[in-house]
Amino acid sequence: MRTIFSRTQGRDIVPEYVAKHWQEDDFFGSQFLNGNNPIIIRCCTTLPLKFPVTPEMVAGSLGGGTDLGKELQEGRIFIVDYKVLEDIPTDTIYGRQQYIAAPLCLLHQGTDGLLRPIAIQLSQTPGPCSPIFLPSDDEWDWLLAKTWVRNADFYSHQLLTHLLRTHLFGEVFAIATLRHLPTCHPFFKLLIPHFHFTLHINTLARSVLINQGGLIDKGSGVTYEGLLLVVQRGLEQVTYTSLCLPDDIRHRGMSHVPNYHYRDDGMSLWEAIESFVTGIVTFYYGGDAAVSGDTELQAWVMDIFTNGFLGRTSSGIPSSLQTVAELIKFLTMVMFTCSAQHAAVNNGQYDLGAFVPNAPSSMRHPPPCEKGRAFLQHFLDTIPEVATTANILVALILLSSQLKDRRLLGQYPEEWFTETEPRRLIRAFQGRLQEIRDRIEERNQVAELRYNYLNPLETENSISI
What is the pLDDT along the chain (465 residues), one digit of tens a residue? Predict the structure, then answer.
């Protein structure tokens, strides 16, 4: 197994760890915090009517001296909802029909600080044919329910968190910059390194990865039309809040959760980028009037609003920038999305997906409608077979590769800025990134499973792969 999984000499054998621990509830829960899709979990204070979990169902999972109502009130219950996948058309692979679910998963933060699943429903409609699976159920019933959640998370991650929210938005930002900001504009100089190879990799993705007959089409259970429908639904749900990490963490109620390394490392990088952007903006712009009066800048943000977010005012995406503060926040969001956010949701794909039962790309049996019917052979016959696994592993290997010409966050070899102050700000930015790297590596020395995806040493300036 070590020989199979070790693609890069000297790298942690994370897939080997996954293969040993993927069935454990602790590891299942931890992936919502520090896995490939760390932006979908949210604190739950009121159970939705479509997920009728009763206190009796979960009493055994909560421990003594408490109950579901108390845990909800005190912010220790969390929910993941894959409604975006409801009724998505499914495909056949090698002549066999594939299936998809739109599950809900309830998790609990224990007294040890760890998140564990306590209830899973595999559809958006409760009823006799959609039982709520519990940790107290038969081992294979519970494992199969968790695996259906992991399959849904595969689609949510690949199509929305990764493709839409980094690659496609990064392309929108790049095109608007090339279209509206001349090369002498300070924000062209600031942003252009963060679009390095982005248009190239997206063109390749459209020709070999997300196209009809491409690797995702061959390796996943949704049709090409289904893929487009998921992305369309996802775009309708995107908000400016969700793209700005500090706002997103508060909105999802995730500020208090321990061991949330994506949040902690991400906030360190967000603040470092924000400080750098603040210095650049205040150097070139004397005040709010300079921002609102910059016609090239206003055309740039309007292009992003119109063509990237389809003019949806409900998204909260600004169509103009009137103040220095608004400009700093928007530029920080763009740079963070193209660097840190992409690193967080891209770099662990092979690590966490190479052992396919942990993140199956397709399911060959429909979701179970009753308990007591799962067993080992049924489980093996549900997850992808060898040929599909090989197709999806090729995609994961490609997406997790490192370019020889990669540019790490804060590295600007083209030296677009010539003035003394911007150059000083770049050096200060690089120094702050080194401090973040040191803190992450110190933490990782004592961690059972390192979280290194937001280490500046692993974070590129741009979406280049």
Answer: 455 555 444 345 799 999 999 999 999 999 999 999 999 999 999 999 999 999 999 999 999 899 999 999 999 999 999 999 999 999 999 999 999 999 999 999 999 999 999 999 999 999 999 999 999 999 999 999 999 999 999 999 999 999 999 999 999 999 999 999 999 999 999 999 999 999 999 999 999 999 998 888 888 999 999 999 999 999 999 999 999 999 999 999 999 999 999 999 999 999 999 999 999 999 999 999 999 999 999 999 999 999 999 999 999 999 999 999 999 999 999 999 999 999 999 999 999 999 999 999 999 999 999 999 999 999 999 999 999 999 889 888 888 888 788 999 999 999 999 999 999 999 999 999 999 999 999 999 999 999 999 999 999 999 999
CB 338 within 8 Å of CB 463:
yes
Q: Supply the pTM of this predicted model.
A: 0.96
Q: What is the DSSP string of 244-304?
A: SHHHHHHHTT-TT-TT-HHHHHHHHHHHHHHHHHHHHHHHH--SHHHHHT-HHHHHHHHHI
3-class secondary structure, 181: coil
Domains and CATH numbers, the chain: 2-41+153-444 (1.20.245.10)
